[in-house]
Amino acid sequence: MSPQSVSKTSKSLEGLHGVHVVSHSPFAFEGISQVSSFGSSDAGTKQSLFIERVWQQRPPCLRPIHCCIHGDQSLLETAANVITSLPFIFLGMQTPRKNLNMKVYANSLIGVGVASSLYHSSRGKLRKYLRWADYTMIATATVCLSRALREENPKFLMAASALALPFQPLVVSAVHTGMMEVAFAKRALKDPDLKTAHNVHKMSTLLGGALFIADDLFPETPFIHAGWHLAAAIGVGTCNKLLQ
Fold first, then answer.
1. How many other CB atoms are found less than 10 A from the CB of residue 61?
2. Residue 69, SS3?
3. Mean pLDDT of 22-29
4. Alpha helices in the chain (DSSP H)
5. Phi, psi dihedrals of residue 192, rounded to the nearest 5°
6. What number is the average pLDDT over the span 135-154?
7. Nearest Cα to 153, choosing from 170, 135, 133, 178?
8. CA–CA gap between residue 229 and residue 88 (Å, rounded)
9. Is the CB of residue 131 less than 8 Å from the CB of residue 124?
10. Average pLDDT for the chain
11. In sequence order, what are the residues at sequence separation of 6 or more whose Cβ sits closer than 8 angstroms to the Cβ of residue 190?
12. Which of helix, strand or coil describes residue 152?
């Protein structure tokens, strides 16, 4: 049917009572579709921008740590850092496993050794993610130790630690390490057999803290980090006395 015949038919139908012919344009629906799709895409863009803005304005406690990935400048330094990570695996194997909490802590120590070894042997873009995994695994071990030493820990503290673990592992480590230090000191006062272990623990903790700070202040100095590994391993070994 030609456009002229369609026009004539429309005019003839418009003459009938109660009949109103709406002109049909092949471009009308296309225009409406384009406006509709543009509106939906614009709304989606605004929503994604709003979510991104909210995420960028989240509090510092929900922001991931900025991992320091210096070190391992030479093959010898890398070998030293990997070798000094292995004692954590051996300590995890020797940790008492009297109950479920102790078993979880023992396995977390093995995880610390594995994560540290993987980080120090890594290179490239993967290195920063393994650094985060290393920090997070250390924090996990401190939480597990706190749980193994004292089953009646406040539920709110444990829940908050679990939530903060991926974002602020250093804060979680500091809190639960402090709790462990207090528990160790109290036990050493009551049990004379723990005094020697506690003295060794205090010395290794002070040495480890000094090496940790020195490693941050002098990142180009080799083998400081390996020394911190050894001091931390000695401290962890003395903590196992509390679980016996």
1. 11
2. coil
3. 46
4. 3-14, 26-56, 75-83, 86-94, 100-120, 126-149, 155-164, 169-190, 195-217, 224-239
5. -60, -25
6. 88
7. 178
8. 9
9. no
10. 80
11. none
12. coil
